[in-house]
Amino acid sequence: MKRFFAERNDGTKVYFSKEESNHIVKVSRLRKGDLISVPDLDHDLICEISYDDPERAEAIIRDRSVNLANPKADITLFMAVSKSDKMELIAQKACELGINRFIPFISRRCVKIPDERSSVKMHDRIVRITEESLKQCGRNRRMEIGNVMTFDSLIASVEKEHDIIFAYEKAEVPLKSFFDPARPISELSLIVGCEGGFDQDEAERLKKAGAFPVSLGGRILRAETAAIALMSVSSYLLDN
Ligand code: SAM
What percentage of residues in the chain have a pLDDT greater than 90? Predict the structure, then answer.
């Protein structure tokens, strides 16, 4: 069943924007009486098209079911600003892998420190890419995209969190030792470095702030590979 996002829901009917109405009627060629699925946060609404106007389509809510694609664990990825195509790829995979928050940060070895304008541009591009990813992967709850953080504000937010791991190629402890089935984790923060990695001082500061350094194996992974590997394993082990 095709999935469309409603602009308004009055409890018995849902109403679509001009763009979504066009998508329903013109692009998907659906008509009055056809059934569609409409995301509604923790539920998916089964709706019957009642007005198939390509400018402002409407549908009657016939049934609802729990959305099974929404994230179950609360995972945040703090990602050091890397090249924009990498950031977009990582954000897209974060959405698919059930990450709740994606927060870029600056570290000393970031190749390009974004200024105000390019930070806004990167933020908007990532929002657009993750909107598409949301539709594609079937989750209803959007991933929050944070503004670019300084390293100091990353340390400050890490100090407040409980379970934080940072991917560090010099770490002796493998990722799997962090997860203990006897110690359930409800909220987890992941930190991954940029192409240049973390310098010694940054790694020490992260450890002092309470972030746990983990190794992802004996090979040096690209930033995007490390992020995707860390998110995949964490999501899997937290039944996300
Ligand atoms: N410092 C690396 C070097 O010597 O080439 C460059 C950083 S690596 C390209 C980008 C990020 O991926 C690192 O900051 C780290 O967060 C993560 N990473 C890469 N390989 C890793 C590994 N084997 N174990 C843990 N983290 C790794």
Answer: 92
